[in-house]
Specification:
The chain has 277 residues and is an alpha/beta fold. It has one domain: NAD(P)-binding Rossmann-like Domain (Rossmann fold), CATH 3.40.50. Helix content is 41%, strand content 16%. The chain has eight helices and eight strands, in the order βαβαβαβαβαβαααββ. Strand 1, helix 1 and strand 2 form a beta-alpha-beta unit. The longest helix has 24 residues. The relative contact order is 0.14.
Length: 277
């Protein structure tokens, strides 16, 4: 694994910053939340699973100031619930600086729900974050990190709809990041595309009720994980911190793999951007 280069340019001091993290009760979201608290930020832990979320909050309170975090039960697929989570965060902490649209599922059998959670909620969460953070709306700027996957760059035969949602997250993030730059929102928007990560999401391939006819690929996926290796959430946290600290990153598509560590997808130069009058 390659070592991270030292951050360049102006660095973001996370002390006192306010972050909202979806899917925060376990896996990558839990690791993000813990890292942000360790850096002095205040965190809204947003998750659908009440019991896991409350247990997460209790454990974090044992290590960090209990007033620096709040657990909010929320189905990110519900516009009203997500809007309420943002409002509760602002009401409690008074501001918003970082949003991690991290919640995701893998359910090929109920593909409409997968689209709603993995893509629609990311778009909605980005727009809600911009509503509060964009300088166009009187905000003070900030950072949005949208979680995708290597399936957002390469096709995964065992998960066509999952692949579609993650491709959508990558495309949307790159486009809205360009919009933010052109219109002076003052908000940097980036996406992270990890390979296989050691989280509960990965076990979904074992369940036929979730994978439907794609359950036939169960052993193939296990073979792929064995071949390419499993990432720990701690490495994804390093990717998050790199995005937060390196202020030139906007519209970046960060890839994280076992063989190459943290690196970036390189695209052809943008051909045409609209002129802003």
């Amino acid at each position: 694994m390659e070592e991270l280069a030292a951050p360049t340019g102006t660095q973001m001091d996370l002390t006192g910053k306010v972050a909202l993290v979806t899917g925060a009760a376990q896996g990558i979201g839990r690791s993000f939340s813990e890292a942000l608290l360790r850096c002095g930020a205040k965190v809204a832990l947003v998750d659908l699973n009440r019991s896991t979320g409350e247990a997460c909050k209790k454990e974090l309170d044992g290590e960090f100031d209990a007033t620096h975090s709040v657990f909010i039960v929320c189905d990110v697929g519900s516009e009203d619930q997500l809007k309420c989570a943002f409002k509760k965060t602002l009401d409690l902490f008074g501001s918003l600086d970082i949003v991690c649209n991290n919640a995701g599922i893998n359910n090929e059998n109920n593909w409409e729900q997968t689209i709603n959670v993995n893509l629609t909620s990311v778009i909605r969460g980005t727009y809600m974050a911009l509503e509060y953070m964009s300088k166009e709306n009187g905000g003070k700027g900030g950072v949005i990190v949208n979680m995708a996957s290597l399936a957002g760059i390469f096709p995964a035969a065992h998960g066509p709809v999952y692949t579609a949602t993650k491709h959508g997250v990558v495309g949307f993030t790159r486009a809205i990041a360009a919009t933010s730059k052109l219109l002076g929102y003052g908000v940097r928007i980036n996406t992270i595309c990890p390979a296989f990560v050691n989280t509960p999401l990965l076990t979904s391939v074992n369940y036929e009720e979730k994978m439907g006819k794609y359950h036939v690929f169960k052993d193939s996926v296990k073979a792929l994980v064995h071949h390419y290796g499993m990432l720990e959430p701690s490495l994804i946290v390093q990717g998050l911190m790199k995005i937060l600290q390196e202020e030139e990153l906007n519209g970046a598509v960060m890839k994280i793999t076992k063989s190459k560590g943290i690196h970036f997808e390189i695209y052809e130069p943008t051909l045409i951007q609209p002129k802003v009058k």
